[in-house]
Amino acid sequence: PTRHIAVLVGSPRKASLNRKLALALAGLAPESLKLGIVEITGLPFYNEEIEAEAPAPWTAFREQVAASDGVLFVTPEYNRSVPALLKNAVDVGSRPYGKSCLTGKPAAVISLSPGAIGGFGANHHLRQSLMCLDVPVMAGPEAYLGNGGSLFDEQGGIAVPGTKDFLGKFIGAYAKWVETILAGRG
Ligand code: FNR
């Protein structure tokens, strides 16, 4: 069956390397896995006081995630942690309490940085939030991409053959993870 994956990108930049990575992963994914970016830059900051009359962007975001078969997080690292943009999306998705659109969604996290550490801090801080939200996150292969500035060719393809192979394996493993989790639910 075709599975529709909501991809959340943790950078607002038009020229974001992580956005490029998300698009490259869409091209490397197995036929059955359709990756689509769900935009999060327009989400107002989460505030319980306005939940009763939730802003339209919150509702639209929650509906898109709820309709998906899984969620893939593609993120840079800001100050060794999750960019506020992406944390806010998780917070918005997690509420109202007990009605999180993220609960049970098969997920994976991949981080990319122009630096050498590959966003490890962001990757694991994000996992901490996902654990408490009962989101089954694929444990491995772990994916921390360093030197992200030299990863892409002019067309946005992956220029480094070893990394391209790795990303193919990563997204293939995620496709299997999605099936495993969805089967367990049925
Ligand atoms: C960064 N950057 C960064 N990089 C890193 O590897 N570890 C870090 O802790 C940080 N911290 C950080 C904080 C802030 C506020 C900014 C704006 C940037 C650099 C970051 O990885 C780089 O800007 C990436 O290119 C951002 O990802 P996109 O926009 O290319 O996807």
UniProtKB/TrEMBL annotation:
All residue ranges annotated as the NADPH-dependent FMN reductase-like domain in the record: 5-148
Annotated coiled-coil segments of the chain: none
Annotated EC: 1.-.-.-
GO MF entries: FMN binding; oxidoreductase activity
InterPro entries: Flavoprotein-like_sf, FMN_Rdtase-like_dom, NAD(P)H-dep_reductase
GO CC annotations, alphabetized: cytosol
UniProt protein name: NADPH-dependent FMN reductase
